[in-house]
Amino acid sequence: MFNLRGGWSTRGSIGRDFVRFDPDDDSAYDVLTPEGPAPFAVPDELSGLLGAGLALTTPTFKRFNASVDTRWNSVAIFAEASEGRESRISGSLAVRPTESIRLDGSATYSRITRAGDGSEFARTVVPRIKVEYQPTRALFFRAVAEYRSQRQAALVDPTTGQPLMRYGLVADAVHVDGLRVDFLVSFEPRPGTVAFFGYGSALETGRVLSLEDLTRQSDGFFVKLAYLFRR
């Protein structure tokens, strides 16, 4: 770690890991061969999984601060009991345009490829934004929106490349794209007396990295009231 003049900081890391697999975790898997389903042979372990990371953080300026983190790792793909390569980058930015408004944004991108043939196993993109507004000491508003886009390839046997079956069904590729929004209002006229009102909703779409055709999946609403009796 290095703390530089003016409040800048950076850190780097290098690691080496190993993973031991539990055969019972993959007991429901079979390999779909031309002759029919065959037992899935789970390796004992993966060793020598090397990884490196580098991060940079800015000073906390009056109006903003930011950070970025990158990583390159050899990882275990537990769904296939195989070795993969992950590239990950994440960043965050906090902006304070006024004393009563705060904006926080972050984003993460992760991609995992199979070490054997370099094909993509999974990809995840998660942008997130939070807005806070406090017009008075007693009143506070917060809104949070997080979009999650995930896709995963169909599972294959890392040794033969044949499709994997789980509970007798082929483990096909999957993808999920959805938005989660949460709102909170807080009112605290004096210490001990407070009211919280919150709402959250989860939505999904069949489009990749899109806000079109969102369908509501769940809703939640809560109220919390507290009053302190004084004698």
List the helices and strands and how they pair.
Layout: E1 2-3, E2 9-20, E3 29-33, E4 36-39, E5 45-57, E6 64-77, E7 82-98, E8 101-114, E9 120-133, E10 139-152, E11 164-166, E12 169-170, E13 174-190, E14 193-205, E15 215-226
Antiparallel strand pairs: 1-2, 2-5, 3-4, 3-11, 5-6, 6-7, 7-8, 8-9, 9-10, 10-13, 11-12, 13-14, 14-15
Q: What's the gyration radius in Å?
A: 24 Å
Stretches with pLDDT under 50, minimum 5 residues:
none
- Distance between the first and last residues' Cα: 53 Å
**Numbering strands along the chain, what is their spatial order in the largest sheet?**
1-2-5-6-7-8-9-10-13-14-15
Counting helices, strands and paired strands, the structural category is: mainly beta
Averaged pLDDT: 93
Structure characterization notes:
This protein is mostly beta strands. The protein has one domain (2-226). It is built from no helices and 15 strands. It has strands spanning 2-3, 9-20, 29-33, 36-39, 45-57, 64-77, 82-98, 101-114, 120-133, 139-152, 164-166, 169-170, 174-190, 193-205, 215-226. The strands form two sheets. An eleven-stranded antiparallel beta sheet has the order 1-2-5-6-7-8-9-10-13-14-15, with no helix packed on it. A four-stranded antiparallel beta sheet has the order 4-3-11-12, with no helix packed on it. A hairpin with a 5-residue loop joins strand 9 (120-133) and strand 10 (139-152). The chain is extended, with a radius of gyration of 24 Å. It starts with a strand and ends in a 5-residue tail after the last strand.
